[in-house]
Structure to design on (256 residues):
């Protein structure tokens, strides 16, 4: 299948994103009150937005892994993994956030 | 400016929701009377929706990302003051689900490329239903939060 690295990207992205937000691995932080990006946590300038940084790590990491995995190997993988893995990620997110916010 | 962007975000979301719902029902394995509204709702060229859905999802998420700073400064503190934990949590889930959706788009696009491979029909259907769930959650959450406290209030 042409462009089979897209399969690997999708399989990896959700898991990597979840790890990023759970462990708080953010490439950068955006502070909306002052409109500034910072690489490190910067106190006293308001709350940061980490979402952009999590997305950046997940996108870059998934793209790197997708490019590294040989296309023959990607072709051999069961195509269903591209929806099974994101569904598992969604369920993990729902359970985790529900315990944080809805209990 | 922020109100215009919020309206644009909402309109894009409506278009995305409509396209994805049409496609999701078009690929669903259900039987219906051919003359019914439901049957006609399903009778669309599902493959033709794929590229617009990828574009709409990306642009809508981008618009949401641009609105996020105003939400973080103006809306979230108000939700915390009002102790609306469920509303806050629903938004947290929304941001994660949109992220998962962005990650799903490459495979979704790959499996909807024409000519469609018949052996990948279940994968296409499940990817479409997954994206539909993510978009419906995000749309409803955004709508409810905007009702609680809009960005311009």
């Amino acid at each position: 299948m042409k462009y089979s690295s897209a399969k690997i990207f999708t399989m990896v992205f959700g898991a990597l994103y979840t790890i990023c937000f759970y462990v708080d691995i953010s490439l950068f932080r955006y502070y909306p009150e002052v409109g500034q990006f910072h690489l490190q946590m910067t106190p006293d300038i308001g709350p940061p937005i980490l979402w952009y940084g999590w997305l950046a790590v997940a996108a870059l990491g998934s793209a790197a892994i997708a490019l590294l995995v040989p296309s023959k190997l990607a072709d051999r993988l069961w195509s269903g993994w591209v929806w099974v893995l994101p569904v598992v990620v969604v369920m993990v997110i729902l359970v985790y956030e529900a315990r944080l916010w809805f209990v | 400016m922020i109100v215009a962007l919020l309206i644009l975000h909402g309109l894009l979301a409506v278009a995305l929701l409509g396209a994805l719902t049409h496609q999701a029902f078009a690929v669903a394995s259900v039987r219906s009377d051919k003359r019914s509204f439901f049957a006609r709702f399903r009778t669309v060229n599902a493959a033709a929706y794929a590229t617009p859905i990828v574009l709409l999802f990306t642009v809508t998420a981008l618009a949401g990302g641009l609105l996020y700073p105003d939400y973080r400064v103006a809306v979230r503190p108000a939700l915390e003051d009002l102790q609306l934990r469920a509303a806050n949590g629903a938004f947290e889930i929304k941001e994660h689900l949109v992220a998962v959706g962005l990650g799903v788009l490459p495979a979704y696009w790959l499996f909807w490329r024409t000519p469609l491979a018949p052996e990948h029909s279940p994968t296409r259907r499940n990817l479409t239903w997954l994206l539909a769930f993510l978009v419906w959650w995000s749309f409803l959450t955004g709508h409810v939060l905007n009702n609680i406290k809009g960005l311009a209030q």
Q: What stands out?
A: The first helix of chain B runs from residue 2 to 27. Chain B has one domain: 2-148. The two ends of chain B are 13 Å apart (CA to CA).
